[in-house]
Fold:
Amino acid sequence: MFIVSSPELVIAQVKAGIIGSFPALNARPASQLDDWLARITDETQGCAAPYAVNLIVHKSNTRLEQDLAVLARWKVPLVITSLGAKAEVNAAVHGWGGVVLHDVIDDFFAHKAIDKGADGLIAVAAGAGGHAGRQSPFALVQEIRRWFDGPLALSGAIANGGAVLAAQAMGADFAYIGSPWIATPEAQASDTYKQAIVDGHAADIVNSSLFTGVHGNYLRASIVAAGLDPDNLPEGERSAMDFGSGGNTAAKAWKDIWGSGQGIGAVDAIEPVATRVATLERDYCAALERLALR
Ligand SMILES: Cc1cc2nc3c(=O)[nH]c(=O)nc-3n(C[C@H](O)[C@H](O)[C@H](O)COP(=O)(O)O)c2cc1C
Structure:
């Protein structure tokens, strides 16, 4: 997650047995990326789960080539690409034996991503934090699974163990969870942002294109605090999407306006990553048992 995901968060996730990821742009200045990868590699030695790095493959990301070279040096095992699939990036990652999952919001982009050489997909459905999709997860997974049998993650408001199981039942291989990790001590977010995730519910999430030029989901309270009317936001300009020079323009927008998905009603406390993972696992097993008894 832009700004929020730090090495602390990723290391805690991998140590707890799940895949942890962060956007390369979070390491700022760009020279920090090497240190972050060194630390993550060192501290997750021997863990079962790999870590992942997210590359914003949008034309305005002037760091892409430089960041890709750093990823190559560390042979990053899993790369998540978003905002435009690029065959050269996929080929480069395959060159060091890495795997690429590409973020998609519909079946059209899913085809495009696989045609360009991505190994798998992350279906970003309606209700997701950040640049959310607009389609129901049922519709999205169903359409992708008609023709694609490779690795598929599903994202969008997944925040409890039963929802992880539901994602699998629907046909996804992985549940991809964002917003609940904001309410952890390991996340790089202000205490007020973390508390807003704990206090928030689906009704507190506003969908708008104003802040980055692409539709995304945000916490209503942060929009009000910025002096804006969440119920009357103008449309954003797609050309305003700017990840140049380390995403600084976008960073300003995201620092005060808090991104969040609709699933945060499941988040009751700011708690360590390991505790949240244990709860997810317990609830996943309970859901499985409940279904088996039917
Ligand atoms: C604050 C925030 C920042 C995000 N930044 C990124 C990003 O930089 N790159 C990306 O691919 N997805 C980003 N996302 C989307 C997440 O990767 C993921 O798809 C989403 O959070 C899943 O939905 P959920 O939050 O409802 O669990 C962001 C999400 C949030 C909440």
Summary: Residues 1-2, 4, 23, 54, 82, 103, 124, 128-130, 155-158, 176-179, 259-261, 263 surround flavin mononucleotide (CB under 6 Å). The chain has one domain: 7-190+261-292.
